[in-house]
Design goal:
Oligomer: single chain
Distance between the termini: 34 Å
Shape: globular
Radius of gyration: 21 Å
Strand order of the largest sheet: 3-2-1-4-5-6-14
Number of strands: 14
């Protein structure tokens, strides 16, 4: 008789590198007696990471991020014995209460995403047993860099690993945002004019994937060096207003707030589609755009809002401006293989902080992944792929 399995099972069995790491951790138990507090998207791939940490001896105290918590993931983690303070919420106050609940457990290590947990530590919620931890994102690194003096503990930034830059940010984010546009809209990309805001690793992948989907792609970046790179990579680099006026699809992947606001409404074409790929739901000022509309139509099941403007134009917002690949119908996020790599970096960096090894002292506050960890993870992945 066939066994009925879940997407969590499919993802867990597909994360070959994490499974190999978990088998090692069963013997080495690097987190024995330690509590790890997490503030990261709670979706099936995260289960594979947290299971690995649990097999290494960790007690897990978890919450998620705004709008990305998947209830079946919460149920699965609780059944495994993790303590989870999380709901599928878009309410910042409710999310803040979950973060406070995690810190009230006084975990020894923090696995952060967007700097939510470490920012609270820096603001006065520090406690003696906290050793440090990891931060996942560009947005979190930008948030935590000014807080280094207040933190004064090892915080290893996974996003600054070259592996994460090319495997997840360039390849997987680009692919998943392209896929998310198709999933939300069921519309084509062929012949569409797409403007991508930001030409970091995520922007490069996004621009490339839409171009591979036969779209005409423009890039906007406030850094002239990044804009020049986009130009030399063959993308159009018009001035910002022109790039907005011409676009059928606008995608933000900058890591900064206020990229598209109500002030841009006069520039948007009738039927323009707006989507965000950055961590925080602030790159597109969804509230300001709604306030500038005379009517908001909602396609609830599809996660699409249509903003009708006073002159009759309609502008479509996907996922409420939240990270599109983890919003809307069937939010799959980045590919399994990319997260297998990135989450193995997470596991190894937390192991390093737990043991107090090289590159994980107090001076290593908001710094990249140690080079020897990058090399070891890359070698292990290649060994499995050969």
């Amino acid at each position: 008789m066939a066994e009925s399995l879940s997407r969590i099972d499919w993802v867990g069995r597909s994360c070959r590198l994490l499974r190999a790491t978990a088998a090692e951790f069963l013997t080495t138990r690097p987190f024995e007696g330690l509590t790890i507090g997490t503030g990261i998207h709670l979706e099936p791939k995260t289960v594979a990471l947290l299971t690995t940490l649990g097999l290494g001896g960790a007690r897990l105290v978890c919450t998620g991020n705004l709008n990305s918590t998947q209830p079946e993931t919460v149920e699965h983690l609780r059944a495994q014995g993790a303590t989870v303070f999380a709901t599928q919420t878009t309410d910042p106050a409710e999310h803040a209460a979950s973060l406070d609940a995690v810190l009230a457990e006084q975990p020894d290590l923090l696995l952060d995403n967007g700097g939510d947990l470490f920012a609270r530590v820096a603001a006065g919620l520090r406690y003696p047993r906290l050793r440090g931890g990891t931060e996942e994102t560009t947005s979190g690194r930008a948030r935590l860099l000014p807080l280094r003096e207040a933190l004064a503990m090892p915080v290893l930034v996974i996003n600054d690993s070259p592996i994460k830059q090319f495997a997840e940010n360039r390849h997987a984010v680009g692919q998943s945002l392209f896929e998310s546009y198709l999933r939300f809209t069921n519309r084509s990309t062929q012949g569409k004019r797409v403007t991508v805001f930001g030409y970091g690793a995520c922007g490069k992948g996004t621009a490339a994937c839409f171009r591979n989907g036969f779209a005409a792609v423009s890039v906007v970046d406030i850094d002239p060096v990044a804009a020049l790179e986009a130009h030399l990579d063959g993308f159009a680099t018009p001035l910002r207003d022109q790039a907005i006026r011409s676009a059928d699809i606008l995608v933000t992947v900058t890591g900064h707030p206020g990229v598209l606001t109500a002030a841009d409404l006069p520039l948007l074409r009738d039927g323009a589609i707006l989507m965000n790929g950055g961590h925080f739901p602030t790159e597109i000022d969804a509230g300001g755009l709604r306030a500038g509309a005379v009517e908001v139509e909602r396609y609830e099941a599809e996660g699409i809002e249509t903003l009708r403007l006073a002159d009759g134009r309609r502008v479509h917002l996907l996922g409420g401006g939240h990270m599109a690949n983890l919003a809307g119908p069937r939010p799959l996020g980045n590919t399994v293989e990319s997260m297998d790599l990135g989450f193995t970096l997470q596991a190894r960096c937390l192991e390093r902080v737990a043991k107090g090894g090289a590159g994980a002292g107090a001076e290593s506050c908001v710094v990249p992944v140690p080079a020897d960890i990058d090399a070891a993870v890359a070698s292990a992945y290649l060994d499995l792929a050969r």
